[in-house]
Design goal:
The complex is a heterodimer. Helix content of chain A is 36%, strand content 10%. Chain A has seven helices and four strands. A four-stranded parallel β-sheet of chain A has the order 1-2-3-4. The longest helix of chain A has 16 residues. A five-stranded mixed β-sheet of chain B has the order 1-2-5-4-3. Chain B has a two-stranded parallel sheet with strand order 6-7. Classes of the chains: A alpha/beta, B alpha/beta. At the A-B interface, loops of A face loops of B.
Chain lengths: 182, 168
Amino acid sequence: MGLEDKLPSGILLSTVEGLAGYMRKSSVWPATFGLACCAIEMMAVGSAPKHDISRFGMERMSFTPRQADLLIVAGTISKKLAPVLQKVYEQMAEPKWVLSVGACASSGGIFDTYSVLQGIDRIIPVDVYVPGCPPRPEQIIDGVMNIHRLVKHEPMRRRYSEEYRHLLGNYEIEVTNADNDK
Amino acid sequence: MPTMTNNTLLDALQVQLGSKIITSEVIYDTLVIEISPSEAFDVVELLKNDATLSFNFLTLIGAVHYPEEKGRELCVVYHLHSWKNAIRLRIKCYLSQDNPSIKSLTPLFDGANWQERETFDFFGIQFEGHPNMTRILNMDEMDYHPMLKQYHLEDGTREDKDDRFFGR
């Protein structure tokens, strides 16, 4: 690399976008939305020493959506709970990602019944789906790694784009950026 | 040692209730009696307050839907438990589907409150005198009572379930 050869050692060049993506993905704060057996697996990922999510800068499990980047939905969402989940998603600050853990959150799972929401993607946009009933912690970590990949490579303009507004509009959610019109 | 058996319980009930007992049978070691819905409250009150029978605990209120039995489609089931005599009793009351309503047991048992709301939620049975006859488990927007057998258990909003793929 021509330019870096001329700089003192220890200096690397990058784009602001690349640097922000790298830093964001190294400190994703998850908000947990655990409901059923998937939540037990999620807890094994989150706080047990064996799987230990703090290796990825994610040990700060946020129990408020307002200070979280990643919403981990783990478990069966009943239709009565659906508006609550949507409200939690709306309260998260941009940029925000959603990880759907387990068959129930992804598609309703075995609960094809009048009281269960047939997948959380009916009410909020989902970035990564983790299959399994419940998934093993390794699978959840794989899902988290895929989230990291998305976070790392996300263009900085995405959350201001018309496409993103359109995406959230499909779920009747407004984009919550303070400066919406950039 | 429990001193009361289903036979002695039935004898005692026949002395107390007489012809109010429409039918009686023993199912899975539990005595089951059928009572007219208009008399259910008085019967349960009597069983609770009677010094020897002393059915002091309401274990469960539920309902059953028998769509093929015209005029008595809905059945409210009360499970009573006498701690003193260590014996249980099941009381069935059949109601018509047209206007299913029965007197609430909330003045007798506070525990009847949520169970009657649940029975209303799933079967649409009105409990007269209940302080808050609203849905308890299902979402408030639901416009039917899902345990009635004319409604499908499956979620009606799924588009991906083509019967051809499931061999139906």
